[in-house]
Amino acid sequence: MSDETQRLDQWLWHARFFKTRSLATKLVSGGNVRVDGTRVSKPAHALRTGVTLTFPQARRIRVIRVEALATRRGPAPEAQTLYTDLTPPEEERPAQASIERTGRPSKKDRRNARLSKHGPLE
């Protein structure tokens, strides 16, 4: 294993998991990131290759294995070479129609009901 390390918040930003480095810092400072199962709350935590990160992102829990350290925040294809995504596939969500609502239907609800009854207009 290499002796090279990189700040955790910086790596998350370079790997394009967060739009800004301050968002990555805020997530780590809040204690929402785990490195190999251990909760980390320091944005400057030394990150090495081969470790597994677990953190919430966009209503999902992401599980990532660090494959390489970053030297810059490059384009998305370059950022995707920095990690392997181990996140399990997302479970199927119930259809929107099965969610019961109370009160007056919205314009979108009325339009969807009309389309499902009569089919799409051509």
Description:
The protein is of the alpha+beta class and 122 residues long. It has a domain of 80 residues: Structural Genomics Hypothetical 15.5 Kd Protein In mrcA-pckA Intergenic Region, Chain A. Helices cover 26% and strands 21% of the residues. The protein has 4 helices and 7 strands, in the order βααβββββαβα. Strands 3-2-5-6-7 form a 5-stranded antiparallel beta sheet. The chain has a two-stranded antiparallel sheet with strand order 1-4. A hairpin with a 2-residue loop joins strand 5 and strand 6. Helix 1 crosses helix 2. It is elongated, with a radius of gyration of 21 Å. The termini are far apart. The model has no long low-confidence stretch (mean pLDDT 88).
List keywords for this structure.
4 helices, alpha+beta, 122 residues, 26% helix, 7 strands, 5-stranded antiparallel sheet
CATH class of one domain: Alpha Beta
Strand count, sense and closure of the main sheet? 5 strands, antiparallel
Helix proportion of residues, in percent?
25-40%
Q: Per CATH, which architecture of one domain? A: Roll
pLDDT averaged residue by residue: 88
User: Helix tally?
Assistant: 4
Could you tell me the CATH topology label of one domain.
Answer: Structural Genomics Hypothetical 15.5 Kd Protein In mrcA-pckA Intergenic Region, Chain A
Low-confidence stretches: none
Distance between the termini: 62 Å
Spatial order of strands in the largest sheet:
3-2-5-6-7
- Overall outline: elongated
Briefly note the structural class of the backbone: alpha+beta
